[in-house]
Design brief:
With 162 residues, the protein is α+β, with helices and mostly antiparallel strands. Strands 3-4-5 form a 3-stranded antiparallel β-sheet, covered by helices on one side. A two-stranded antiparallel sheet has the order 1-2. It is rod-shaped, with a radius of gyration of 33 Å.
Length: 162
């Protein structure tokens, strides 16, 4: 007597035929589910992974811009000479951006002072804009694809005693 209904089949001559549970039934669609799964997984997961990389790159650019603006303002107020202060602030931006793994040439610094840059108690504002490139595309020669431009502001007061 068969142990399950799947094991008992009727032949054309009406006799019952017992079949073992380990015997496979051939179907033309056998094995196609794994191929479809792999195809759809690649088709859907690659753009999602690239989106995650891009968002991470933009977030890293935002951190780099904040750090660069903060350091530029701090370095600027330490100098008496305005051209030397601008040069030191530019160097601080280049170092901060490069430390975060971005191209230093993609950062732009602008400094404004209220009322004068060398006046004690004046407020120095540093504004940094950083162009963030798409991940993996920047490695291609001649391709310049920008994902976003992030910017940050920082303020420092010029001290009374230098």
């Amino acid at each position: 007597m068969p142990s399950s209904p799947d094991e008992c089949h009727t032949r054309q001559d009406g006799e019952a035929e017992l079949r073992g549970s380990t015997e496979a039934v051939y179907s033309p669609e056998t094995g196609s589910a794994i191929v479809e799964f792999i195809f759809l997984a690649v088709l859907l997961m690659v753009p999602v992974a690239y989106l995650i990389l891009t968002v991470g790159q933009i977030q890293g650019g935002a951190y780099a811009a904040v750090g660069a603006a903060d350091q530029a303002a701090k370095v600027f107020v330490l100098h008496q000479d305005i051209p030397a202060a601008h040069q030191a602030a530019e160097q601080a931006v280049r170092l901060a951006v490069q430390d975060m793994g971005f191209d230093p040439d993609a950062a732009v610094l602008s400094v404004s002072c209220d009322p004068g840059c060398a006046t004690a108690g004046a407020t120095v504002r540093a504004h940094v804009e950083l162009r963030v490139e798409l991940p993996l595309v920047g490695a291609l020669p001649g391709v310049n694809a920008t994902a976003a431009t992030v910017e940050s502001n920082a303020m420092q007061k010029v001290g009374r005693f230098k």
